What we know:
The complex is a heterodimer of chains A (about 200) and B (about 240). Chain A is of the alpha/beta class and about 200 residues long. In chain A, about 50% of the residues lie in helices and about 15% in strands. Chain A has helices at about 15-30, 40-50, 65-75, 105-125, 130-140, 145-155, 160-170, 175-185; strands spanning about 5-10, 35-40, 55-60, 80-85, 100. Chain A is elongated, with a radius of gyration of 23 Å. Chain B has about 240 residues and is mainly α. Chain B contains 8 helices and no strands. Chain B has helices spanning about 15-20, 25-30, 40-45, 50-65, 75-105, 115-150, 160-190, 195-235. Chain B is globular and about 65 Å long. The interface between A and B is medium-sized, with 22 and 26 residues.
Amino acid sequence: MSESKILYIAIAESSTIIRKGVIATLKQLLDGSKQFIEITSTEQLTESFRHKQIDVLIINPLLYNTIEHSKLKANSSFKCIALQTSIADKNLFNSYDGVISLYENDQEIVRLFNSFIEHKNEEEDSEEVLSQREKEIIVCIVKGMTNKEIADKLFISVHTVITHRRNITRKLEIHSTAGLTIYAIINKLIDINDAN
Amino acid sequence: MIKQHIYRDSDKMSDLICCNYSLLQVLSRFGIPMGFGNKTVKEVCNEQQIDPKTFLCVVNFIASDEPTKMEHPEIKLNDLLLYLQQAHIYFIDFNLPTIRKKLVDALELSPDRTITTSILKFFDDYAAEVRRHMEYENKNIFQYIGELIQGNVQENYSIIEFEKMHKAIDDKHVEAKLSDLKNIIIKYYPSQQVNYLLNSVLADIFSSERELALHCYIEDYILVPAVLDLEKKLKKS
Lengths: 196, 237
């Protein structure tokens, strides 16, 4: 079932009670689909980043040194939140995107997460509009042309056609040719008689 | 994490439905009519000659948030098969035609006939695909399982092959099509005023999608492991 985008949240904390507590709290507070990944050791942390998608990492800075997390940060883009479990020097949290203390109130947690999610959406929105080239390609697809035919007609490589098609699918969230046909008709890119 | 409620055979059938109305579909597919008064699940099932364990297995599966594959489901295969066949009839003869009718009425308000025609054609293609998929299952898979229940083993076929093919079809094809239809209506359909009928048909499409996904999960996660168990048992003897 793919109803909406899923937010992948990893929690790196060795205490079972705190880890499960954080998950239960977030489940209750945050809207939308979430998947939680529980991490209990440094090895597992590196392993998880290698194999899984992670959007937000909540981590106990006392357990994992900062070198580790900046190393991970270099390889993939995710938000890193420090989980503050005891009184600590503020400078310890400088390299993190946010801090959640064990005594944080509901609103503050929601605010922190929403700021991440909204930020993410903004980045995507700016690319949502179809370019003129992409519109031309939609017309070709709807007319039933193959990638090769489209490439020849527009004087571009097949590889570029494929990239354009991938971008069109991502922007419109329409996967099938039949779906693109309807899109093209609604937006008057083609005449009904052109459709294959 | 909050432990999710598990229904038992001593629960009142009416409580089951009132707690979670999405279980209504389970009742109709097992052929259980309403009006069960204060009878328990076990009593109602026995009256209708349905195995209570199979009934509860499906009920708890549907009520759970995250369906997971069952290892050795304790079910009566024959009853599950009847349930799934009934589900196919529901989708093909009732659910999809009902959505289509509503879609026709909702789109009637649009002045642009070409858009209406192309959306209806899209829906018809989708419905045809679902029908093809289900008829294939009826003819081949359910037939095979039926034979197996009678004790007739086919040496050259195993349900594992169905499992492989089934997952590939559901994940990519059918679901992608339906999500295209939803996106077209939600994001791109040109409507000037509020169209209650269109909103309502959209809600129907969402719930049909969920029901269909659950239906496929039941096939993959309950039916397949149960058939595998039976295959093993028969091939040993």
